[in-house]
Amino acid sequence: MKKFLSIVLTVSMLLGIGVPVFAVGGEKVRVTLDGVEIVFPDARPFIDARDRTLVPIRFVSEAMGADVDWENETRTAIIRKDGDTITYKIGDMKAFLNGEMHVFDTYGILKEDRTFVPLRFISEMLSCGVDWNGDTMTVLITSPGEVVKFPEPKLTMHFPDSESDRRLFWITLDNYRDFERDCPNYEFRIEFKNPVEFNVFEQDEGAINGWQKYNRDQFVTLTNSGNTIVTIRRAYYTTRENAKTFSIADGDTIDFELTIHRKCSDESKMYSFSEALKMPYPLEKAGE
Predict the structure, then answer these.
(1) 12/48: higher pLDDT
(2) Residues of the chain with CATH 3.30.457.10
(3) Which of 16, 28, 130, 230 could form a disulfide with 20 if both were Cys (CB 3.0 to 4.6 A apart)?
(4) What Pfam families does this protein's entry cite (predicted)?
(5) C-alpha pair distances (Å), 84 with each of 78, 80, 88, 267
(6) What is the pLDDT of residues 35-83, one digit of tens each?
(7) Segments in 166-262 forming alpha helices (H)
(8) Is the CB of residue 126 less than 8 Å from the CB of residue 64?
(9) Which of 100, 126, 264 is nearest to 183 (CA)?
(10) Which CATH superfamily is domain 3-142 in?
């Protein structure tokens, strides 16, 4: 990715953090970039009722020397720098980088005439590392390093925070921008080793096609899915046949392998992961 993107994530993080902020409960939150605390001159970061840290995107971008425009009619922020363009519409769960869509699981807001975006939004769009120190109430942002061939994948298994969310869990590649910076043609595939039933699923395709079985054995790019590699839903998570005997419970271990294919050099690498399943909501049987 262009130098601007690397700077953006550094700056965004910088801007996205700064002066001590107050969390919903009143605790002071600090934000640092590469060990240096960030200070905001005007609108300041804050933690909302959903425990999201939001930062003013204009300060982050302008600190990088970028031009920021605001389209009031469409409520869209446009950031331009060195030929790169990032657009984000308030309330959307997606943003565009040079016309390429990136999907997120949260959204930004407009507050006191300032556009605020979640810290995670900035980290994913700008390739910065983000950690949380609960003891000191500090968000730790690390600017991207040198471009690395086949960077070590950093995965997160997410679980729904609302019963209306029909997903059982989904897996994201948190540092996918590190891969994009190295080669724009990486592909990813996840194969579940336990339970293997997660590798197949059925879906009702209507009166004409009926129920169809699908395998999760295809490589995918992250161009249109943000950084989500695979999603397992509470409904249709397996086949109707498997549903008769297959069972899973909170705390069960999910084992899977991630295969990464670097098309730029036709090389592949495989990584193994394990994660404990969290089931805050009832599991739905396939076909229900």
Answers:
(1) 48
(2) 3-142
(3) 28
(4) Cu_amine_oxidN1
(5) 10, 6, 14, 29
(6) 777 777 777 777 777 777 777 777 666 655 668 898 999 999 888 876 6
(7) 176-182, 206-209, 240-243
(8) no
(9) 264
(10) Copper amine oxidase-like, N-terminal domain (3.30.457.10)
